[in-house]
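Example with several molecule types.
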Amino acid sequence: MVAAHEVVLAELPALLPRLWRYGLVLTRDTATAEDLVQATCVRALERSEQFTVGTRLDRWLFSILRSIWINQLRAQRIRVGQGLVDPEEVLVTEGAQQIEMNISAGQVLKRALGLPEAQRETLLLVYVEGLTYQEAADVLSVPIGTVMSRLAAARLKLSALQTPSADNADRDQD
Amino acid sequence: MAPGPTDIDNDALLVAYLDGELEPGQYRELEERLRTDAALSARLAALADASRPLRSSFDALLAAAPHARLKAAFASALAKAPRRQVRRYRQMLLAAAAALLLLVFGGALGYFAAKVPGELFEEADAFEEEWIAAVAGQLSLYRGDSLASITVDSAEQQAQLSRLGEVVNLDLSAPKVELEGLTLKRAELLHFQGRKVAELLYTGEHGPVALCIMAEPGGEGEGEVESRDGLNFMYWAASGRRFLLIGAAPAKRIDALADTIAARFGT
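Resulting structure tokens for the full complex:
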């Protein structure tokens, strides 16, 4: 029990930027992403004894962050009318300063962040974080088939096969 | 054109192929189809293109993360964590002791048999959380000058304070409840889940501040200012009462006010 707490304590700080990135992909808002990371830290430290030493801490933290988003923050944001965010504005931080990156990376990100929530988080977990389909299915609590169809839909939209105007025909595959 | 169901199934298969997630049998079957179906292999190429720059683009975000603020968030979470664990541990001990006493004296056996101590302290926590959330919700309805417009009849307020004082069994006379920089606008008796709550509503530089007193023993607080929905609050329990001081004022100010109040009531 003590060991689990110590592992969480020692390894969590290095994972903060990746948690923030997942938060940003979910919330599309830099400030809310920060709140989400803070809430994730609080819960992870409170429940550190529930972490199984020898398993991946990043996966465990992703699940926590996601559940806080789904159960607490998302509902609040939708209530105050911020549910729809323009992906173009996501990369602007609180101080209205554009996150600096090269143009093509920025274009890719804008298109990826414009995907429906379920697709963009699945995309992040598998293609950026390198989770296997099974690991992603576990974090997202969905069957593997749903992971597959979300990835296919996301890739299709990011590919040249579909123009952005066809996007409104899309639905989340849940 | 939006894809039909067959396209989606095909795409999922192609994507799983690209991601190395196909079973060996499915893999060989698809390779065979790709060799003979030019359209399918063109689609595969397009889908493959789509994910190539993803990782490097998203890695640019890692560099842009607010590293200092994230570390500060972790530090603040860390500062809270041990206190909570100690608190839970204490509550668990208390609950276990209470359960044991009741068992020894033969009371409420069924109740405690059904509820392990762990659930009991979770329940106590949940009650405090709900109570704090209810007061925060009420207070968040007041904005700026909504309290400023209330005129105060001093004699009536004294009478109301004295009635409230009887309810919570505390001296709530003017010298005890006057707080520097704040004007007492309302003193009223509220109810939360069947318990009586004396609420004193003040207004000041930073908007409304509420002091709530419940004449019932409760779990000890965090011993520090916490925040919820943009409000700062301090919760503590002493001398068989629960106290909650909450408002939009800065944490330092809430902390100082809570000290004053606690000292006045000898808690």
